[in-house]
Design goal:
Layout: H1 2-29, H2 33-55, H3 61-85, E1 89-95, H4 100-109, E2 115-121, E3 124-134, H5 138-148, E4 153-159
Antiparallel strand pairs: 1-3, 1-4, 2-3
Helix pairs in contact: 1-2, 1-3, 4-5
Length: 173
C-alpha cells in the first residue's frame, strides 16, 4: 500500500509541476514576469518533492516509470489547460475570394475590429481581412467566418503584445 501511495504522489506531483511549467512559460511569453515567477516557485517545489521520492528509492524502477508517466501526462494536461485559459491575443488573417465584405460586416457586427488590405494572389486582386482578438474569442471568429464562406482561408497567429487600438466586447451568440 505504501508503494502505491508513493507512486500516486509521484505521478500526481509530476502532472502538477509539468502543467504549472506549461502555464509559467505561457505567462512569460505574454509578458507577465511576476506571475511567472510565482508559478515557478510552486512548480519547482512540487518538482523537487517528486524527484526526491524517486531518488530516495532508486532500487524500484517502477518509481522512475511512474515519474516519467507523470511527466507525459503533465504535458498533455498542460496543453489542455493552456487551451482553456487561452491567455493573450491572436491575429487572424482571412482571405475570402467571394465574401470578404459580408465577412467583415458580420465580424464588425459581432464586435470584432477588422482592417481590410488589398492583396494580389494567383487569382488576382482580393481582400485580406486582419483581425486582432483575444485568444478565447478564436472559436467565435472561426464560426462566423465559416458561416459566410466555408472556403475562406484563415490563418491565426499568436500576438505577443498590442499597443493602442480598440477592443470591444464580443457579443455572445
Amino acid at each position: 500500500m505504501a508503494l502505491f501511495l508513493n507512486m500516486l504522489f509521484i505521478f500526481l506531483a509530476r502532472v502538477c509541476d509539468v502543467t504549472l511549467s506549461t502555464v509559467r512559460i505561457l505567462t512569460i511569453m505574454r509578458g507577465k514576469a511576476a506571475l511567472a515567477a510565482l508559478i515557478g516557485f510552486f512548480e519547482v517545489s512540487v518538482y523537487v518533492l517528486a524527484l526526491s521520492r524517486v531518488i530516495g528509492d532508486l532500487d524500484r524502477p517502477i518509481l522512475l516509470i511512474t515519474y516519467a508517466s507523470g511527466f507525459a501526462a503533465g504535458n498533455y494536461i498542460g496543453s489542455l489547460v493552456e487551451e482553456r485559459l487561452a491567455l493573450g491575443y491572436a491575429t487572424a488573417q482571412i482571405i475570402s475570394l467571394e465574401a470578404a465584405d459580408p465577412i467583415a460586416a458580420d465580424l464588425r457586427e459581432q464586435g470584432f475590429g477588422v482592417t481590410i488590405l488589398e492583396g494580389y494572389g494567383r487569382k488576382g486582386v482580393h481582400k485580406i481581412l486582419l483581425v486582432l482578438l483575444k485568444r478565447r474569442d478564436i472559436p467565435c471568429l472561426l464560426e462566423a467566418v465559416r458561416a459566410c464562406d466555408v472556403n475562406a482561408f484563415i490563418s491565426v497567429m499568436d500576438t505577443r503584445k498590442i499597443l493602442g487600438g480598440h477592443f470591444t466586447k464580443i457579443k455572445a451568440k
